[in-house]
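Retry 2 of 3 after timeout on previous attempt. Resubmitting structure tokens to design endpoint.
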């Protein structure tokens, strides 16, 4: 088996520099692989470093470069592992799920290599085992804390806990023990792929968060600079009345997701900000999943001119 590792930075590659400036990525992909001495027992490993960014400062341009590299090596290896900072790891995994054939497994760490109990080596080992497994033949996944999650459902759930990555409704696909892989369900089927946009010209898609008292200005400002907008709504996909009235007049696509940790969006409530009212507007769609995942898909859909295809009828009530 052959697995290619693409390093992008993150806590898994970060160390404290000692001058009180804080931790920052400093280790290469080769450094990470060398810290796990038994990786070669699972696959022949090749390595490259594409970026050295903290997870909180990833960009669409880096995501595009990673996706292009995954596409470039897919035919020559059995799987790809991407090491990444945890803050936006789920977003990059979703990006790769929508743009690459895979299998690609994204992993990282909550504790740095220079901290006691660093989880980076174990997570990288799990990711390589997953990428080399013959049960994964397509799609993107997240390997963390000896679990494997589908990119389509995974979320970062805790700021510092080692089991931060969870799939609140679906659960993990598999759990890795010392000697075995326990599969809970089949990996999801691959989705229809979207093209990778030019790294330097991704569409601009701001997120507007509805909360108590949020008015028109938040949306108006986002609309002035966005090609489309994601609204992180409350509950089933509702907004304040002021936001709802502004959304009604928007001249760009608007996708509404929920701020809630789990559960669907659904057009139940009326009034100007209720999802049942918002669902009447032709330019408004609803997403099942996090606002951050919806934003990734909307960026790619706008770039490909396929917004209606990706979000048409999504979460509409069915018989």
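Retry 2 succeeded. Sequence:
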């Amino acid at each position: 088996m052959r697995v290619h590792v693409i390093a992008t930075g993150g806590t898994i590659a970060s160390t404290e520099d000692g001058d009180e400036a804080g931790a920052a990525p400093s280790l290469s992909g080769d450094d990470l692989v060398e810290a796990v001495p038994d990786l070669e027992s699972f696959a022949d490993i090749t390595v490259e470093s594409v970026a050295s960014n903290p997870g909180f400062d990833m960009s669409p341009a880096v995501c595009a470069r990673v996706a292009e590299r995954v596409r470039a090596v897919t035919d020559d290896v059995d799987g790809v592992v991407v090491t990444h900072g945890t803050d936006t790891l789920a977003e990059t995994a979703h990006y790769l799920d929508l743009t690459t054939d895979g299998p690609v497994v994204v992993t990282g760490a909550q504790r740095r290599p220079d901290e006691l109990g660093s989880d980076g080596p174990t997570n990288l080992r799990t990711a390589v085992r997953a990428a080399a497994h013959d049960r994964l033949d397509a799609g993107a996944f997240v390997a963390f804390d000896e679990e494997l999650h589908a990119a389509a459902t995974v979320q970062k759930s805790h700021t510092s806990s080692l089991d931060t990555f969870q799939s609140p409704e679906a659960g993990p696909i598999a759990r890795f023990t010392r000697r075995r892989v326990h599969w809970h369900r089949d990996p999801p089927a691959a989705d229809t792929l979207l093209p990778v946009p030019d790294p330097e010209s991704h569409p601009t898609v701001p997120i507007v968060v509805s909360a108590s008292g949020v008015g028109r200005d938040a949306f108006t400002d986002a609309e002035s600079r966005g090609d489309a907008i994601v609204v992180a709504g409350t509950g089933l996909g509702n907004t304040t009345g002021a936001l709802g009235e502004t959304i009604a007049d928007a001249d760009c696509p608007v996708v509404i997701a929920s701020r809630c940790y789990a559960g669907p969006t659904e057009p139940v409530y009326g009034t100007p900000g209720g999802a049942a009212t918002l669902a009447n507007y032709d330019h408004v769609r609803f997403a099942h999943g996090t606002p951050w995942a919806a934003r990734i898909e909307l960026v790619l859909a706008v770039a490909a001119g396929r917004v209606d295809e990706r979000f048409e009828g999504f979460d509409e009530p069915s018989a």
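Attempt log closed. The radius of gyration is 20 Å.
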